[in-house]
Amino acid sequence: MKRNSIRAYIILTLLLNLGGIHLTHAEASFPSRPLTMLIGFNVGGSTDVQGQVLAQILTEQLKQPVQIIYHAGAGGGAAAAMLAESQDQGYTFQYGLSLPYTFTPLINPASYSINSFRYVAGITLDQNAFITGPNKPFKTWGEFIQYAKTNPGLIYASQNAQDRFVIQRVMQRENITLRIVPTSGGSGMAPLILSGDADIAFSGGTHSIYTDSGLMHVLASLADERLAYYPDVPSLKELGYEVSVHAIRVVAVPANTPDSHVKILAQALKNVSQDPRFQHITEKRIKMPVIFMEEDELNTLFSNQLNEYQQLISESRHLKNIPSALDDKKNNRWAVQE
């Protein structure tokens, strides 16, 4: 697997001009050449850690090499836009959290919509959380809120538009002021938290690498329920905020991908979800539950989430202005998640 930082339009040109290998029987027609897996975040975050193992197992399952291309930006949205333009019908697919499909097009101008893709399978339940570092005078959500009330201007490390919406709701309700700064995903967030330069942060999974050693502490779950590996930490909904950022890690392909290709990919991903290597990296290393959700289940879930996020956005548009590094037009670009 080669790591590649070629610009999107160059990558697309290469992908669209790859030649196929002509096989003699129809059952083996897909895949007949190497595949490309897009990861919409930087190297070093939890999606990268997991994605490398995923690519290895898919290579074995599909009998074709699976190359990873990292195309970071807009919390996975840049890679989603790239995928939406592809005519590669399953030879190019994206792996990562579902928010770029269900949330990002609702708040930022985008060249795609949720209908631009087919969602082959969901294989991991994301574990979004608010976290803090080792030397802060708070270790719980309640302690953080009390400290923030008497210490305005604490630094909050944001990774995407979604977590910014949530933290704005918190600030409005609690009448606190945080300074929001963008980070380059989990690999960019971690140094800020570990050094103490940021007081709290959003994390989509990178925190799991540091919690056992006490270098990071989970303050609140952003999922619909408590996190599987942090059962003592309440969710924001439990705390009365009526908001969540519930995401599934999915494989998505362009909408024009035929059923036969989707079926083959889905079966391979089902096998991946049962592979001990994938289970180990997911459950032991990044501490996320392995699941398997088929296309129909995902379509129903995402439709329901769209309604929830539209309500969240409508309410958030009425929030007061919050001091933020992102208010500077030179920095007005969302950094990436993990």
TrEMBL record:
User: What are the UniProt keywords, alphabetically?
Assistant: Receptor
Q: Does the keyword Plastid apply?
A: no
Give the protein family: Belongs to the UPF0065 (bug) family.
Xref: PANTHER family? BLR1237 PROTEIN (PTHR42928:SF5), TRICARBOXYLATE-BINDING PROTEIN (PTHR42928)
Question: Per its record, how is this protein called by name?
Answer: Tripartite-type tricarboxylate transporter, receptor component TctC
Species name for this entry? Answer: Vibrio cincinnatiensis DSM 19608
Highest lineage ranks of the organism? Bacteria, Pseudomonadati, Pseudomonadota, Gammaproteobacteria, Vibrionales
